Amino acid sequence: MSGETSFMHLVRPNVSAPAASAATGTANIKIHAPALFQILEIVSKQVLSAEKRIIGTLVGLRSDDGLELEIRDAFVVPCNETGDSITIEDSVHKTLFQLYKKAHPKEAVLGWFGSSNQIDNTTSLIHDFYSKGSDRAFPHAAIYLNVEYLTADNQITVPKLSTYIGAAVGKPAANTQIGWKTTTVNNSYIFTPIPNQVVNGSITEKIAFNILKEKSVNTPSTSLESDLSYLSKQLQVVDTNIDNILHYIESKGLETNHNSDKDIDLLRLLSNNLLNRPQQLSNSEELKNLFSAHNQDVIMIEYLTKAVKDQIELSARLTASADAEKKV
Amino acid sequence: MSSKQTKKYQAPTATSINVESSVLLSLIRHTSENYPSLFSGTLLGFEDDEGSIDITHVYPFPYPDQYEGGSFRSRSGAKYQQEILESLKKLGYGVEFQGWFQSTIAGNFITTQLIEGLAQQQLINKNSFILIHNMSSVNKEIELKALRLSEGFIGAYLDGKWKSKDLESNKISYLNIFTELPINIHNQNLVNLYLSNLNQQQDEGEQDEFDVLNLSSNQNVTAQLLESLYSQVDSYNYDQNNFNYFQRQQQKEISKISQWKQQRKLDNLERAKRGDPELDTEEWKSIFRLPSEPSRYNNMLHSHAIDVLADDILKKCEEELTKSVAIERKLTFNN
């Protein structure tokens, strides 16, 4: 993942994407881990041959200003490349998207993904397909996610993700031939790189992702037994954070000139947090009472639940033995 | 009984479930994002030769479930499932329908609809199963279980009477309605490559999540669990009343019969003295009729639900006590 600062944000609105953000703000793409894994799975099924291209549709959410994009899912769309032209199976794209849309009504087509090593003429052709027409990114600008997993001499390497926003430039060339159809295509696109990051939504997902990251690599199969590794890892992070702050404060104490605004803000934040603690914390007696009341409540619930559980078991056993007696 | 149920049931051959990592993440995302709404969906994949089922695709049903198992037998759910399968087949994927997933809270998933749907599916495909995502500790840990109705349960289901002796002959009780299958997570090679690379460049772009460290107890969940427990106990009692009524009736009849037998014995002794032929001692069978036992089906389902709920509540209580005692020590010791 590249640092965000290394990007120059140039988003060019154009006629083919009238709703593209007018502001030249920074666009950012969030790739949800499930979608990324799906893409990687699709790509890894690709036959290693130069002619066969694997592409697919990216679906997800787009913020109101069109600058925050969330890739939430992806599916493959078959295409055939012959020489300079390409045919994309529109019907597959449509049916799969419509089916997906039923379960995720808020999501839309964002763009497409591929796995080539370079941006070429065909990239523009595919991008043109995704930029126009219904059920595609139109009226927004389509995005293009590339998973580069082959080196120049066809060796498999760590997949590298790059994302682009494509904007048409120049006058559309008239009557270009795509497959059997003759239509107007604009195959001059400028692909502007935009930053992306891989994210996990809910905490449960993060825990799952952590299990995958820690345990599943290079083992044929992993069981889904959760342990406390995630918890302890987070605790360590908190620990180091506190250490860092302490260290910072101590090092500042040695300096003579220590009333910069930043330091004062930090101190204010820390002391505010201390002041915010509830009054009861300083009343030891009351605190003890509250805790013991709470613990007794919990124990009561535990006891009653256990009683219910045992009752159920007893009842089942009694029924079974009553039945056995009858036979005698 | 319908013709479907006379079908010969075969014992399942697949003994474990392999889940593709993307499926795991998609499933967990969908269920936990939509929590507290309950969702279910289709699991697609194939059976491999080594006795396990590989799940490669997951598709949630379009609408949330009113109750667990609601979408399995609904027309819209089945249609959606079919459409997905057809379009994937067109793409050249050799996938088949293997089972469902269902998000739930503790033991609430044990509904007649879910059992019925799963039983019918297991009669069609012996290896079908269901993935249960227990949401009772959502955002704390992942509780995913692959379940299948046990062979004994299907046997009793095919008998369809659910009398105590049927349960006994099929060797089932509320504790073994389901058999659990081990779940394995499988990564594609590129995913492996990506993950191992992530491990190397650690801490870059990693998001920390301190919410898991939050010590305050989620009382909502405990309250919800307890409420579910009440309602299950209520339904259980309702069913148990019927059964108790039956037991009393049976007791009454049995005592009547033994009285009658006693009487007949005495009569026969009298007659023997007088030299008359003995009367039939088995005649009571035509005079008295024992009440028929009500079905134990609901009793079993409720019992199992209560058992699972109780286990979850006990787990929550234990966690709570540990936390509470630890915090108490820390706070009161310092002051």
What can you see in these coordinates?
- The complex is a heterodimer of chains A (328) and B (335).
- Chain A folds into two domains: 4-199, Cytidine Deaminase, domain 2; 281-328.
- With 328 residues, chain A is an alpha/beta fold.
- The model of chain A is unreliable at 1-5 (pLDDT under 50).
- The longest helix of chain A has 44 residues, at 284-327.
- Chain A is built from seven helices and 13 strands.
- In chain A, strand 2 and strand 3 form a beta hairpin.
- Chain A has helices spanning 33-44, 90-103, 121-131, 203-216, 229-254, 261-275, 284-327, and strands spanning 28-32, 55-62, 68-77, 79-82, 85-88, 108-114, 143-150, 156-168, 173-178, 181-185, 189-194, 196-199, 222-223.
- Chain B has two domains: 3-199, Cytidine Deaminase, domain 2; 232-334, no CATH class.
- An eight-stranded mixed β-sheet of chain B has the order 7-6-5-4-2-3-1-8.
- In chain B, helix 7 (219-274) packs across helix 9.
- At the A-B interface, helix 1, helix 2, strand 8, strand 12 and helix 4 of A face helix 1, strand 3, helix 2, helix 5 and strand 8 of B.
- Strand 13 of chain A pairs antiparallel with strand 8 (183-186) of chain B.
